[in-house]
């Protein structure tokens, strides 16, 4: 493969220099080569760069056009530009030491005037991506299809009232699955960006949900037919761009999957900012998925609680991330999933160097949270408190309740007899919050 020019000439591969370092272009907490429990921290974290934000984002927002202009966005045609952009991206992946990346089909290759032309464009660029992956060792965490940007999807893709649009979306996902398999993708994500409604005046909700289920079953069947072994993921979001999306949150997603017999084929890709928009905490969504064995992967970002839209910022809130990491580690980790930085630079952050500062901050914050969460779980103070708080269910009639061996008559007899009036026990929330702070600031 021909050697490409350097797109970040002033920046070397980011090194770990420790917490006392004052170098802004160094890791202070993320040491990818450190071995923990027999494997590297890099293997534990499985960080991924979101291609769409980092290499297709231009700094636009609902109130203005883009502000970011990259030097590599030049070429004689759209395909050559796409390949040069990939070269820049893989240089960045190596220098930031991210082992994975993620993309939508239309992120990496230009859409053509027909599906056939789009597929040809994708094949040409994917061949280049495959060479870059082989040369660098960077892998694809997950792929997906953009079923929301083109005007044909203005009323949804799988939930579109026009069967022609449904068919087109199916053909696009077919190709995206093939591409993801070809690049060794470990997961495939479904984000229903426009799978919802603006008004029920023109919406048959029951029919649309049944169509979405049929679409997902088709995807499962096709994946099996081509030998794709990756994990399918659902990414919940409550609103925006539609007023109400069918994958509102993890709980709604679980109900949908079980209603239509899909729960054996899908897990959840949980995004922090989507949890916020649903009125939940990040940790809540993780716990709901983990409780059902459906925790799959994480889109690592954050929203601004003072703004009402999906701002996709890099998350540096160590408290929030520590709580999330406790839940993730307690659930046994993410398996084939990882932490994908589905986050974008702020509109005024226009320098290529800002890409490094953003990812360094996110990776350091998650790595620090990982260390704190491991310590919290190892010392077991919160675990012990929870065990004691629920200990009445460990034996006797409490155990019988959990095993469904008693009913209302049995419990009524117990309360009227030897049990009598319960004695309230403190939940000790303030103590526990102080205990958490002792880890965060100790």
List keywords for this structure.
alpha/beta, 16 helices, 442 residues, two-stranded parallel ribbon, eight-stranded parallel β-barrel
How many DSSP helices? 16
What amount of the residues lies in strands?
5-15%
Query: Topology as H/E string?
Result: EEEEHEHHEHHEHEEHEEHEHHEHEHHHHH
Largest sheet: 8 strands, parallel, barrel
End-to-end separation in angstroms reads 51 Å
How many strand units? 14
Task: Estimate the helix proportion, in percent.
Answer: 40-55%
Q: Give the helix/strand class.
A: alpha/beta
Round the mean pLDDT to the nearest integer and report it: 96
Contiguous uncertain segments of 5+ residues: none
Apparent shape: globular
Biggest sheet strand order reads 5-6-7-8-10-12-13-14
Radius of gyration, taken over Cα atoms and rounded to an integer in Å: 24 Å
């Amino acid at each position: 493969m021909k050697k490409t020019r350097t797109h970040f000439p002033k920046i070397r591969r980011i090194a770990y220099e420790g917490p006392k370092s004052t170098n802004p272009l160094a890791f202070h907490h993320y040491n990818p080569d450190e071995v923990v429990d027999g494997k590297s921290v890099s293997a534990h974290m499985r960080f991924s760069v979101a291609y769409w934000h980092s290499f297709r984002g231009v700094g636009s927002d609902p109130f203005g056009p883009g502000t970011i202009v990259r030097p590599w966005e030049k070429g004689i045609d759209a395909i050559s530009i796409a390949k040069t952009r990939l070269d820049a991206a893989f240089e960045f992946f190596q220098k930031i030491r991210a082992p994975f990346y993620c993309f939508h089909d239309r992120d990496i290759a230009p859409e053509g005037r027909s599906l056939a032309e789009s597929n040809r464009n994708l094949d040409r660029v994917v061949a280049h991506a495959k060479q870059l992956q082989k040369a660098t060792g960077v892998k694809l965490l997950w792929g997906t299809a953009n079923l929301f940007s083109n005007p044909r999807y203005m009323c949804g893709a799988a939930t579109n009232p026009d069967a022609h649009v449904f068919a087109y979306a199916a053909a696009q996902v077919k190709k995206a699955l093939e591409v993801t398999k070809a690049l060794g993708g470990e997961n495939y994500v479904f984000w229903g960006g426009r799978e919802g409604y603006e008004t029920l005046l023109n919406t048959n909700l029951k029919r649309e949900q049944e169509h979405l289920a049929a679409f997902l079953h088709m995807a499962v069947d096709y994946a099996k037919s081509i030998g794709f072994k990756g994990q399918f993921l659902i990414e919940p979001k409550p609103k925006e761009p539609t007023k109400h999306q069918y994958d509102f949150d993890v709980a709604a997603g679980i109900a949908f999957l079980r209603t239509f017999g899909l729960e054996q084929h899908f897990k959840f890709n949980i995004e922090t900012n989507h949890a916020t928009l649903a009125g939940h905490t990040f940790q809540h969504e993780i716990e709901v998925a983990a409780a059902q064995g459906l925790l799959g992967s994480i889109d690592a970002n954050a929203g601004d609680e003072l703004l009402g839209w999906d701002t996709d910022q890099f998350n540096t809130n160590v408290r929030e991330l520590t709580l999330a990491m406790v839940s993730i580690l307690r659930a046994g980790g993410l398996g084939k999933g990882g932490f994908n930085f589905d986050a974008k630079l702020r509109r005024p952050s226009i320098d290529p160097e800002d890409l490094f500062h953003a990812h360094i901050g996110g990776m350091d914050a998650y790595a620090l949270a990982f260390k704190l969460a491991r310590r919290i779980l190892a010392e077991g103070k919160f675990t012990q408190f929870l065990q004691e708080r629920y200990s009445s269910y460990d034996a006797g009639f409490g155990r019988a309740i959990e095993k469904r061996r008693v009913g209302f008559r049995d419990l009524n007899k117990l309360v009227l007899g030897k049990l009598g009036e319960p004695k309230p026990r403190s939940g000790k929330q303030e103590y526990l919050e102080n205990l958490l702070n002792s880890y965060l600031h100790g």
